[in-house]
Amino acid sequence: MRNMLTASAACCVMIIISHRPFDFVVTMLLCVLAQAYEITGRVILLLHRIRQAISLYKFPENSGIITFSISHSEIRSRIVLIIHPIYSAMQRSITIGLIILACVAFTPSSLIMQAYADEDEFGIEKLYPTGDETWEMEDDDPKKAKDGDDDDHPFRFGTDKNIEDLDYKGNGIWKMDVTTGSHEHGARMHVYRPDGEDWKNVEMTGYFKVLEGDDQITMIARHGRSYHANDGCEALGYYAMVDMDGNAYFKKKLHHEDGGYSDRVAEVEDAIDDLKGEWVGLKFVVYNTGDDEVKLELYGDAGDETNDWKLLTEYTDDGDLEVHERDCARPTNYVIDEGQPRATYRIDDSEFEFKNLSVREIEDED
User: How far apart are CA 366 and CA 364, in angstroms?
Assistant: First the structure.
């Protein structure tokens, strides 16, 4: 509202100093346009917030719920296409030029930037507000991890001996070949918090294109420090998984010995299109909702950075999810409600491309 009043005051000043009837009429027209432009900016922000709220729920087909298929960039582009020619046609008037400057200075650019500020450095939408730490993959991180030059670097490969080939393709895209012939061996890309603390409530993001192979894309949150140390007791974590047919589900792991995994839970068939040969974005969100309760959410963007995030599946671990065998002095239904050192991306026996990996600590929901 303050922006609208400021723009109106600027318009009034322009009217007073204008001595030409044409400029007077056009100035009035631009005042109306400025007000409409302000309202449009607020509508964009409102649509952005509504879209974020809708993305938290998965509505069944034919439910009658209407969702927005148009992206933020498309909305912005269409507004520019409408307004820019009008401005261009009127630039012959000095008064109108001043009005344009007033509109730029005082109308909704700040609001539009606020709507678009909820994106990471790759331009990927954030679903939850950022907390106190963020890691975003830089172009040379995989090479550093493969070379092993810096043991303290946040991004590390856990099974680099399985990597047959690792090439940078440009534009932030890396290609990796881990066709090991075994669904138990492949790529483990571990992310440690840059500040050395544990990841707890997180939003993990990545884009992947599987070229060869039929394994799952796996993202692991609250992942323990080691698979084998302390008799495998540190190899716990929550697993979000999408197979090549587009089926999505979760698992829990409490130890690295036999029986350490749970069965699949919250499985949704055909949650996303087939993954083979196509870019797909995945987000795994994990956060505590109360005492001994952890919420798991898996989102997908069926495209190459389209930012059309849809909830694929969700689950709340309140102690009902059990692994098959007890070990490490933990009950089989142990809830991993504490932070752990790693967040991990995993693909076995495949050749694939990846980009835009990020892990963010999100604001605590407790």
Answer: 6
**Among 360, 344, 338, CA closest to 121:** 360
Residues whose CB is less than 8 angstroms from the CB of residue 99 and which lie 6 or more positions away in sequence, other chains included: 10, 11, 14, 27, 30, 31, 34
Domain containing 233: what range?
Answer: 130-362
For 196, list phi and psi in degrees, rounded to 5.
Answer: 85, -5
Say which residues have a Cβ less than 8 Å from residue 298's Cβ, sequence separation at least 6.
240, 242, 248, 250, 282, 283, 284, 285, 311, 312, 313, 314
What is the rounded CA–CA span in Å between residue 37 and residue 112? Answer: 11
User: Is 19 a residue whose pLDDT tops 80?
Assistant: no
Q: Rounded to two decimals, what is the model's pTM?
A: 0.70
Q: Is residue 121 included in any domain, yes or no? A: no
Is 122 part of a structural domain of the chain?
no
Question: What is the spatial distance between Cα 49 and Cα 218, in angstroms, rounded to a whole number?
Answer: 29
**Alpha-carbon gap, residue 347 to 183, rounded angstroms:** 9
Q: Tell me the average pLDDT of the chain.
A: 79
